From TrEMBL:
<dbReference type="GO" id="GO:0061630">
    <property type="term" value="F:ubiquitin protein ligase activity"/>
</dbReference>
<keyword id="KW-0862">Zinc</keyword>
<dbReference type="InterPro" id="IPR001841">
    <property type="entry name" value="Znf_RING"/>
</dbReference>
<dbReference type="Pfam" id="PF00643">
    <property type="entry name" value="zf-B_box"/>
</dbReference>
<keyword id="KW-0479">Metal-binding</keyword>
<dbReference type="Pfam" id="PF13445">
    <property type="entry name" value="zf-RING_UBOX"/>
</dbReference>
<feature type="domain" description="B box-type">
    <location>
        <begin position="86"/>
        <end position="135"/>
    </location>
</feature>
<dbReference type="InterPro" id="IPR000315">
    <property type="entry name" value="Znf_B-box"/>
</dbReference>
<dbReference type="InterPro" id="IPR011042">
    <property type="entry name" value="6-blade_b-propeller_TolB-like"/>
</dbReference>
<keyword id="KW-0863">Zinc-finger</keyword>
<dbReference type="GO" id="GO:0008270">
    <property type="term" value="F:zinc ion binding"/>
</dbReference>
<dbReference type="InterPro" id="IPR013083">
    <property type="entry name" value="Znf_RING/FYVE/PHD"/>
</dbReference>
<feature type="domain" description="RING-type">
    <location>
        <begin position="15"/>
        <end position="58"/>
    </location>
</feature>
<protein>
    <submittedName>
        <fullName>Uncharacterized protein</fullName>
    </submittedName>
</protein>
<dbReference type="InterPro" id="IPR017907">
    <property type="entry name" value="Znf_RING_CS"/>
</dbReference>
<feature type="domain" description="B box-type">
    <location>
        <begin position="146"/>
        <end position="189"/>
    </location>
</feature>
<dbReference type="InterPro" id="IPR047153">
    <property type="entry name" value="TRIM45/56/19-like"/>
</dbReference>
Amino acid sequence: MADALKNVIAQSLECPVCLNTFNDPKILSCSHTYCKACLDNLLKCHGSHEMLRCPVCRAETQVPNQEVSRLPASLALKSLIEDMKDHYQFCTNCKSEDKPQAVVYCQDCGKYLCSTCHNKHSQWPDFIGHEVLAMSEIVSGKVSVRIYRKCKKHPKEDEEWFCSDCRRFACFKCVVMEHTNEGHRVIETAVYESSHIKSIEDLKSKADKKRSCFQKYVDFIDEQKERVNNVQKQCTDDINKAYKESVQQLRERKDILIGEVKGRTEGVEKELDKMKKSVVEHITHLTTIADVVTNRTKIPSDMDALAAHDTLCQDLQEALKQEDPNYKQPRQSSRKGKCVSFKRNVGMDVLALGRIVNAVAKNIALPTKNNMIALVSTPDGRMAVAGCNPGGVEIFSADGHHKKKIFKDIKIRGVGFLSDDRYVLLDRSNNITLYTQGYTKFNVMFETLSDNEGGIASLTVDSNDQIYVSYWNARKIQVFSPAGGKAIREISCNGYLPWQITSYNTYIIVASGNTNTIRLIDKQGVVKYKLTKSGDDLYPAVSQGNTIMIAALKRDVDLVSIDEYTNELKHIQNLVTDYKIEKPEIKWYHLQQYRSGEIAFCTRDRLYIFH
């Protein structure tokens, strides 16, 4: 009876989760008790939740701040466990009342044995294979004792059966009286334990596989993280390297810019120094002679003194004949230096610091507001600004002076010149008319497309006196002979609108409307080269050096930049950078160059001449 009671007490000291003696037992709100470590593990399974579900009754207990240590401890259970540890276990095999202290426990016999019984037990052939545990290992907790379950109703009977329906162990008597008649599924405890162990092993195997699967995933994440870290390190190294190189480039660029400023200004300073030196020498000469002549205290009397005095007076008279200083020359020289300025980069290429620019523009209001429609250089080196409303052609010199107005009554869309200096005019009805230098009209007819058929048109003349007319709506270019008549050929503009056209060697430069694109096409319409600048409107012209100039206009801020390009549309140099123009009412622009080198950029209202 005492052994049975001990077994019951021992079972009550086992944690339902780990099946070992309670270690730091904690009580849940449902009154069930578990080891603190087991509750910690259960709480981890629920992630960041503060609610813990009891494995026995499934009731939930709130765990403050996820700290299981803050749950109430089972003090009585802890005290009982300590008492059980300190209580000696006596031999359960000896028959005498004064039983000796046990030294081992046989798992198979379910008995505690003293040293005498242990010696006999180890000598019995049937017991040689039994699992025997030393009491020192049991007390230290290194091993667990297999408890033989005794029936609570029949304490002398072992619970050798297990009811699968009731999920409880039972003795043979209980099985016969309570379970068999109910049709319950009853199996031997050993069979259940074997099946349970196999089920646990299967679960463990699946858990190991699942854990391995997720561990591979973790390893994969670590691998990706390592790759990202490698990229971060590589990028950091590249950035540091680029930073050092950029700093070096900035230093070199700074030195180049400073040198460029010196190169542009030192020549002017030398010119001014040369002027100054000449004037200072004249001042010294004038002062010296004047002092010699005017500081005499005696009047010369002999012939030599008179001769010397006459000579000095004559030299002074010559010096006095020197014209007064002309401020125009040093002002002109200094203007070359004063127009030099540094234009800092704003935008993509900030590391280039900027450029040294010396573009100075004349801003000229056109005689008629919102009139300009075409711009072309005249054979005599001036600039012709053609108007569509009320019409006419305004002629401006390279210094910006308005010279005259011609063809006052013609509303013009395009103007050009043949090699014999005849005018070629394209009017608002898309009719072409030829005029002599004296403005006499030739009786030559050209079969162009009307405004309704072709839409707005543009005109250019090539070096072979062939006349090109482009049409917005028809999206093609017609080519005419100066003799008039029908077009000798047509060029199709597939996929783009010919906004402006300009003759260039054996090519035609086409500015496409609202596409920010310049195309260089041959006389058959094949696109040879193309240039696109996002965010800019592009306007081309042919330079006096037979290169291509392109004005790029930022419409939203009204800044114009002009660059020079090769015949393959490769950039050569910047000519004008971000020059602020006055905002026109109508967005229409043209670019040309004077024979003398000045660049003309024209809006509908104003003519800008860059020197």
